[in-house]
Amino acid sequence: MAARFPEESTLEDLYHQQQHLTNSDEGYDVTFADEQLDTNDMTCVICLFILREPHQAVPCGHRFCCGCIDKVRQQKGEKAPLLCPIDRLEITATFPDAGRKREILNLEVKCTNIESNSPSTICNWVGELRKLQEHVEKQCDNTLIHCHLQCGVKVYRSNANFHLQNDCPKNLKDCKYSIIGCPFKGNDERLSTHLSTGFDHHLFLQVLRQSEDIDAKNKSLDEMEIKFRTQVQDMEKRMIAQSKQMKNSFQKQIAELKQEHETKTDQMMAQSKSQEEIIKTLQNDVTEKSKRISSLEIFSVAPKCPFAYVIDNATEELQNARERNTILYSDSFYCLHGYKARLKIHLDGITGVPVTKGTHLAVYFQLLQGPFDDKLQWPMPFGFITLSLSINEGPKAIAKQKILRHTESDEVRQYFVKPVKRAGVHRGFRKFLALKELPEVIDNDKIKFEIDVTPC
């Protein structure tokens, strides 16, 4: 099937027919490149066009456009029985036929504007049906489009530039001599004719405008000259009288003030210098002591190694890790006389790492920014980091322990450098414990982790 545009069709009729391609809920009204193609099994039994968003009916198996079957439902009502127009069987359900949709969109069709009234050449475009809409809307010269200056006229895309240059009422331009009073407006061609024939008129307007400007400026200059001359004369009289009275008085006061100022300035500079040195010394001392006191107070009450972290609601946290990929962080603690750190725990493995997600429990040691970082040695020197896990007691007890050993390799050292953000890079074991080793029943619903960091 192909779009037919009779010779008596108006541009408005053609425009609405072209909109059918994208705005219709019915099937595609197109002509296939293969004119021998059998279209019976890809035709909607309601609108008789090529299927658009095909849905297959149950139990009869006939296919409809999604928009067509929806219209029928709306017309009959949601509760009324829906009968197939081919075999009159009741339709109990429909479902999208993605395979048939793909087959239809893969077929090659001709441009729907192939027989339009455009003065341009016939469009010979052939391509996949899925690309037809983009071709008609953005490429085809035979498509009717709105003038982009919104003058209300619809033109073929091939004639758009001609319309803008010659017919569009919103593309009229002012004469370049409008600033001197020329009222003419027109398109490029008429402007060119106007400029070539209107030289004398424009010259007259230019001379007239310049003459008016000169008269106005001369009048303004005369007024300003009279005003300034009067002001200058008045100021000269006042300044002569005032200068005679103030000259002697100022000279005497200046001498006295100069002497007094020099004396007080010398005194204040000496005193200020002494006070600034004292204040600076006291401030530095107070600041340093405050920092030391604050750091010592924090360190004295903060947890230290060996450090234990207990998960009290282990069953719930394991469920959260499976469903929402939650990560647990222990409270911060200090090790090796000042390094601040914490434990990072993935109870259900690491998201995005198939070898651990859902199969292993992962445990990491992670350095944090601390109050003593500027006084500590970096990378952190250590001998061993021992990570332990314990669940239950007695015969049902499960215990796991792994050790990180210090090496001088750059690969290991990068995990123990001074943190530049709140938390540094973590280091540990992504397969710390296989989840299948967890007991079915966890006593008191608790899992205990312990860490100890020993020096070199």
From TrEMBL:
ZnF locations on chain (TRAF-type): 135-182
Domain RING-type: 44-88
PROSITE patterns recorded: MATH, ZF_RING_1, ZF_RING_2, ZF_TRAF
Domain TRAF-type: start-end pairs: 135-182
GO MF term list: zinc ion binding
Alphabetical list of InterPro entries matching this protein: MATH/TRAF_dom, TRAF-like, Znf_C3HC4_RING-type, Znf_RING, Znf_RING/FYVE/PHD, Znf_RING_CS, Znf_TRAF
Main location: cytoplasm
GO cellular component, one term: cytoplasm
The MATH domain, residue ranges: 304-453
UniProt cross-references to SUPFAM superfamilies, sorted A to Z: RING/U-box, TRAF domain-like
An annotated GO BP: regulation of canonical NF-kappaB signal transduction
Alphabetized UniProt keyword annotations: Coiled coil, Cytoplasm, Metal-binding, Repeat, Zinc, Zinc-finger
Residue stretches in coiled coil: 240-267
Subcellular localization, as worded in the UniProt entry: Cytoplasm
Pfam families: MATH_2, zf-C3HC4, zf-TRAF
Protein's name in the database: Uncharacterized protein
Annotated organism of origin: Clytia hemisphaerica
